[in-house]
Amino acid sequence: MITLKGEHIYLRALEPEDLDFIHRIENNQDIWEISNTITPYSKYLIKQYLEQAHKDIFEVKQLRLVICDFNHVALGMIDVFDFDFKNRRAGIGILINDSANRQKGYGKEALQLLTSYCKFHLDLHQLYCNVSEENEHSLKLFKNQGFEIIGLKKDWNYVNGSYKNEYLLQTILNVH
Fold first, then answer.
1. Confidence (pTM)
2. How far is CA 50 from CA 13, 18, 19, 40, in A?
3. Is 69 exposed, middle or buried (0-12, 13-18, 19+ CB in 10 A)?
4. Rounded Cα–Cα distance for residues 133 and 6 (Å)
5. Interhelix angle for 136-144 vs 106-120, to 10°?
6. Distance between CA atoms of 172 and 170, rounded to whole angstroms?
7. What are 39-51's pLDDT values in tens digits?
């Protein structure tokens, strides 16, 4: 799909071959804070999830895409969640898995591609995201792509024995 192809990366649907990649990500305790995960996922559960991944976003209210370079290496994932067609909005989340691939523009390009897809193909009016107050790189990424901080959720996430604040950011795609 041309819509999901950029200059350095492309976004693609999940494949059964992504089982090990997703298993590594979902069980990486270093990023559990970002995904609000507190327990590991089995390969069995992820395999079941992959078997259902073909379902339409209008049915399951979410879409997960793999971020790949042009050597077909999976770099990370980008998600649309809480898809609300009636109100034409959705949440967005992004992860570049390997820290060596961060800060190289892959996240920016993936966010631009998915934002365009949400605007022109899903006809969404707005997107939002939740970012920890401490996650300066993600805040910069989203703010540079037109997302604005619209709120601070105080003591929102309990992480390693302390509470952390989380920003709510939003962008309006279709101004009428």
1. 0.89
2. 10, 8, 8, 16
3. middle
4. 29
5. 50
6. 7
7. 777 877 777 877 7
